[in-house]
Amino acid sequence: MLKALAYIFGFLLLGELITYFFEIPIAGNILGMFLIFLALRLKIIKLQNVKPASDKLIKYLVLFFIPYGVGLMVYFEIIADYWLPISVAVIASTVITLYISAIIIEKFGK
Amino acid sequence: MQEFFQLPIFGVFISLIAFAGARKLQKKFNYALLTPVLVAIVFIICFLLIFNIDFEDYNRGGKFISFFLGPSVVALGVFFYEKYEEVKQNLKVFLLSVAVGGISGVLTVIIFLLLLKVPDFIIESLAAKSVTTPIAIEITKLTNGIPEITAGLVIAVGIFGNAFGPFILKKLGIKSKIAIGTALGTAAHGIGTARAFEESKLAGVYSGLAMCVNGIITALITPYLLQLFLGSFP
Question: Which of A108, B139, B159, B179 is a plausible cystine mate for B93, CB 3.0–4.6 Å?
């Protein structure tokens, strides 16, 4: 578990390091996700070396964003003024997104 | 008493207890809108309001919990490696469907919000509304939006997809389970994926992978699309 966690943190650090030095507009953790996938594909690291930690992190993913959700209370009055346009735009966009991705794979997938 | 609530352990403890309690509640009633993350957030907000505690004080502990979002995104890369074999035969169509769906998700929400004359900082906070919360938060930080608004709305989108996604898709004539899974992961991230697993195991895997792929695509294109439409992002 400790080793697995060190690998995950290591790839996060690597991602942050690259974005820091090259000033590319992508978050370090997203780069870290891409790099760890690549490292697994190229067999630089083994799945069983990282799986214990990654499974646990994914299992509790929703717990980790609760504090951000609570932070919405600070902005509640600001967005309350725009609740109707926000709801309309977000719901319409979500339905379009759902339909477009579903219809492509339904028509052309196996 | 205010000093007590400023101790980091308060924020950590109430987050854990609220989440554990909310999960118990969902197991008991199994109702879509009782999704644990929503119940936990509403409970904590009410608690803070009732006892007149500042969000900043709560977040002294809360930030120890949200720190783990960073490593969790890296963990999604491991999940993707583990599962992508299962979508291999459909890989090209799958990637196309997530890419086109994901890009239209960002485009349409920016255009609709612009048409409805919503202020720029809200548009910047909502452009990445379809992707998993930790990635959406990172995108919002890069585009000068407000991450807390992003988190709240992203969770709402997930709950909407979870509660109504399969129903809407079936009404629109979608029959394939993997199409429903891919759509839920693309449009409604992890909370939608939870619903996709209820449709079928394979639908769930497609959904989880769609969530990862759309996270990357949306992270890559959102800063540029916002710059194109708002012209303000550096």
Answer: A108
Q: Are B28 and B21 in contact (CB under 8 A)?
A: no
Residue B173's SS3 state is coil
Interface of A with B in 13-42 (CB under 8 A): 15, 25-30, 32-37, 40-41
**Cβ(B137)–Cβ(B63) below 8 Å:** no
* ipTM of the complex as predicted: 0.90
For residue A97, the SS3 value is: helix
Write out residues 20-79 of B within 8 Å (CB-CB) of A: 36-38, 40-41, 44-45, 48-49, 55, 58-59, 62-63, 65-79
Residues 6+ apart with CB under 8 A from A22: none
Domain positions in chain B are 2-67, 74-230
DSSP assigned state of B33: G
pLDDT per residue as tens, chain B (234 positions):
778 899 999 999 999 999 999 999 988 887 767 788 889 999 999 999 999 999 999 999 999 999 998 999 899 899 989 988 888 889 999 999 999 999 999 999 999 999 999 999 999 999 999 999 989 999 999 899 999 999 999 999 998 998 899 999 999 999 999 999 999 999 999 889 988 988 888 999 999 999 999 999 999 999 999 999 988 544
- Whether the CA torsion B154, B156, B158, B161 is positive or negative: it is negative
Task: Establish if A72 touches chain B: CB-CB under 8 angstroms.
Answer: yes
Q: Could you say which of A28, A64, A97 has the minimum Cβ distance to residue B66?
A: A64
Q: How many residues does chain B have?
A: 234
DSSP string, B112-169: HHHHTT--HHHHHHHTTTTS-HHHHHHHHHHTT--HHHHHHHHHHHHHHHHHHHHHHH
DSSP letters along B70-115, please? HHHHHHHHHHHHHHGGGGGGGHHHHHHHHHHHHHHHHHHHHHHHHH
Rounded to whole angstroms, the Cα distance separating B184 from B186 reads 6
Specify the DSSP class assigned to residue A26. Answer: S
